[in-house]
Amino acid sequence: MGKGSFGRVYKATLKNPTSKYSCFPSVMAVKSAEVSCSGTIQKEREVMSNLNNTSPYLIKCFGDETTMGENGAMAYNLLLEYGSGGTLADRIEKSGGNGLPELEVRVHTRSVLRGLNHIHGFGYVHCDLKPDNILLLPNGRKVGDFGLAKRQKDSKKRKLEPYWRGTPMYLSPETVIDSAQAAPSDVWAVGCIVLEMLTGKPAWDEKNAEGILAKIGAINELPKIPGELSKDARDFLKRCFVRKSMYRFTCEMLLNHTFVDGLDSDDGATEESEDFEQLSEIESMALVYESGGDDSFQDEWCDASEDDSSSYWCEEKESEVVQGEGVIRAPNRYYHRVC
């Protein structure tokens, strides 16, 4: 499926799903590296174990094993939950640089915040939060890849590390300037991810790491928040993009923000089974409801590019036309903003 500095990731299928292996799903993602080079993966296993492996907003770990590789070297394997819907980065890429509907962004954001809140509650900092590390599954979005995560020590005892962890595009000012990474650093990364989802473009327009780090390290630089975003979206981003980390909103505070608070449905392990691959294929289509006193269900599809209506019909809310942006889910159908 992919490879990195830690090793490779494989899609693994359980050959003999007998009762002996009933604790494993039929398909898993397996991170693998030679034992002598598996320190990062083993660290990830330790972090996931300490996080209690119970949050529906974090990728689950099913254990680890050591096997003999094809070259005769011993390999360490970490068995993880498989993200069948790809990553959030894939979803953003499919938008073609136009960004995702705001309602969808809000739902993604709430899941990420809940996962991150769990991580921070156990005294850890993720340190590498980005769209590539957020996986889409039939039962929701989940934060993954804990190879760079670290414990958040008491601030009075903490010594600054001589380096930072993570990906330049999503680093906070305090990380770039002082190599300091704590819970607020993850919140800054959330802001970068939300801005990227809404606009289809990264938070910084620089193309190379040096240019990005220079922008983040500059005294007065902040990512540009487009004025055409909704008031709630703009305010949410402003709470994330506070240069002084002590004044930045926490995950818990952001979860109470109007941008994510008050969504109609929960987004845990039993919710949000929307197939985002299916959604991306038909997102240019919309079911248009022409309001004229007839509250019956209008089962007629039309091309979004040929209609300037902004109405939605949601079968879950009978005889109600829902106005606004985003995607509304109804049984077996997906409705997208028409204009």
UniProtKB/TrEMBL annotation:
The keyword Kinase belongs to this UniProt entry's keyword annotation: yes
What SMART domains does this protein map onto?
A: S_TKc
Which Pfam families does the UniProt record give?
A: Pkinase
Q: Which GO terms describe its biological process?
A: signal transduction
Q: What is this protein called?
A: Mitogen-activated protein kinase kinase kinase anp1
UniProt-listed PANTHER family: CCR4-NOT TRANSCRIPTIONAL COMPLEX SUBUNIT CAF120-RELATED, MITOGEN-ACTIVATED PROTEIN KINASE KINASE KINASE YODA-LIKE
Q: Which domain of life is it from?
A: Eukaryota
Which PROSITE patterns is this protein grouped with? PROTEIN_KINASE_DOM, PROTEIN_KINASE_ST
Keyword Zinc-finger on this protein? no
Protein's organism: Phtheirospermum japonicum
Q: Which SUPFAM superfamilies match?
A: Protein kinase-like (PK-like)
What's in the keyword line of the UniProt record? Kinase, Transferase
Q: Boundaries of each Protein kinase domain copy?
A: 1-260
The protein's GO terms of the molecular function aspect are: ATP binding; protein kinase activity
